[in-house]
Design goal:
It is a single chain. With 134 residues, the chain is an all-alpha fold. Helices cover 81% and strands 0% of the residues. It has 4 helices and no strands. Helix 2 packs across helix 3.
Length: 134
């Protein structure tokens, strides 16, 4: 299996873990009254943090000597592109489907699928790019 395919598979697994975090935090946010949209911002940030930790360790293996703090901010910035796609798809599902207890789960899943490819490209080529220097 090529390196990129292997990374994409691990990225998808990390994405599933992020989806679980996202959905759990969203339901908690809804439970305290934040609503579908404000709660989603909070849950998205929690999912980004969770996937950064997983991708850093297992998908792309962080570069030696790299500041984790700087890498985190690059990762967050890179995920914003996919996050916009994700939030758009999520918002469309929330707006178009009738209220239901599983609506947040369906909307987060749709958003996650919509933003995944944008996020993979950002992570691979912007955050965890391999240095060509010796």
């Amino acid at each position: 299996m090529s390196r990129t395919r292997s990374e994409l598979l691990r990225f998808a697994v990390a994405g599933v873990a992020g989806l679980v975090v996202d959905v759990c935090v969203l339901y908690l946010a809804l439970g305290i009254g934040l609503g579908y949209y404000a709660g989603r911002v909070l849950s998205f940030l929690a999912a980004v943090y969770a996937t950064w930790r997983i991708n850093r360790r297992y998908t792309f293996a962080a570069s030696a000597g790299e500041s984790a703090w700087r890498e985190w901010w690059r990762y967050l910035f890179a995920m914003l592109g996919g996050g916009l796609v994700n939030y758009g798809a999520y918002s469309a599902v929330v707006a178009l489907l009738p209220p239901h207890p599983l609506l947040p789960l369906a909307a987060v899943a749709a958003g996650s699928l919509a933003g995944m490819s944008v996020n993979f490209v950002g992570a691979k080529y912007f955050v965890f790019r391999r240095s060509t220097r010796p």
